[in-house]
Amino acid sequence: MRVIAGRFRSRPLQSLRGMDIRPTSDRLRETLFNVLCAGNPAALEGTVWLDLFAGTGAVGIEALSRGAAEVTFVESAREAATTIEKNLRSLGISDGFHILRMDVRGALRKISEAGRPVDVVFIDPPYRLEDAYRETLEALQRTPLIRGSTIVVAEHDRRFEPGAVFGELRRCRKLEQGDSALSFYKRVKAVET
């Protein structure tokens, strides 16, 4: 596993054993960032990210490498949070991030209290925790963190349907690659008739 592009391009990242910590593959990560950048490598400059169920931190670290101003990594597993710290340290990243060692629901409450909206939210729970997708997307759509320009991306098993509509949060795109898929969501104001 490595950083795909940007300031830390080709630098290796540590991983963990086991299926619960399933780092986003290099290929899928590259697809994700190609979509988010839409041909403009500077598109992520200065963005604010939430990396929920962060695992090894590969997605958030990729965002930092490509110019994100800040990434909050949320990971409740101690060993995984320690791996995120090691990966950041190995790259010499000392600022522009926060690591919250807590469950996603508690982290969203804490982050929402700060009142700072985010530009990109990445959700990647262990595939077997199917309820975590719906619970997290429901919680996100109720927070002030998500504005009209925020992109929420859920990585999930290709055969699993996380849902298309969560209040004003609607899926706008779905990409499949191998056994995995990425569902992209945006906030859409309800149209009055």
Shape: globular
Structural class: alpha/beta
Summarize the biggest pleated sheet.
8 strands, mixed
What's the N-to-C terminus distance? 50 Å
Q: Using the coordinates above, name the CATH class.
A: Alpha Beta
- Please mark out the parts with pLDDT under 50 across 5 or more consecutive residues, or reply none: none
Percentage of residues in helical conformation = 25-40%
What's the CATH superfamily, by name? Vaccinia Virus protein VP39
Q: Give me the CATH fold name.
A: Rossmann fold
Spatially, the strands of the biggest sheet line up as 3-2-1-4-5-8-7-6
Examine the secondary-structure arrangement and name the CATH architecture: 3-Layer(aba) Sandwich
Can you describe what's shown?
With 193 residues, the chain is an alpha/beta fold. It has one domain: 3-Layer(aba) Sandwich (Rossmann fold). 29% of the residues lie in helices and 23% in strands. The protein contains 5 helices and 8 strands. It has helices at 26-37, 58-65, 78-90, 104-114, 130-141; strands at residues 48-52, 70-74, 97-100, 120-123, 151-157, 165-166, 169-177, 180-187. The protein has an 8-stranded mixed sheet. The longest helix is centred in the middle third of the chain and has 13 residues, at 78-90. The mean pLDDT is 92.
Topology record:
Elements: H1 26-37, E1 48-52, H2 58-65, E2 70-74, H3 78-90, E3 97-100, H4 104-114, E4 120-123, H5 130-141, E5 151-157, E6 165-166, E7 169-177, E8 180-187
Parallel strand pairs: 1-2, 1-4, 2-3, 4-5
Antiparallel strand pairs: 5-8, 6-7, 7-8
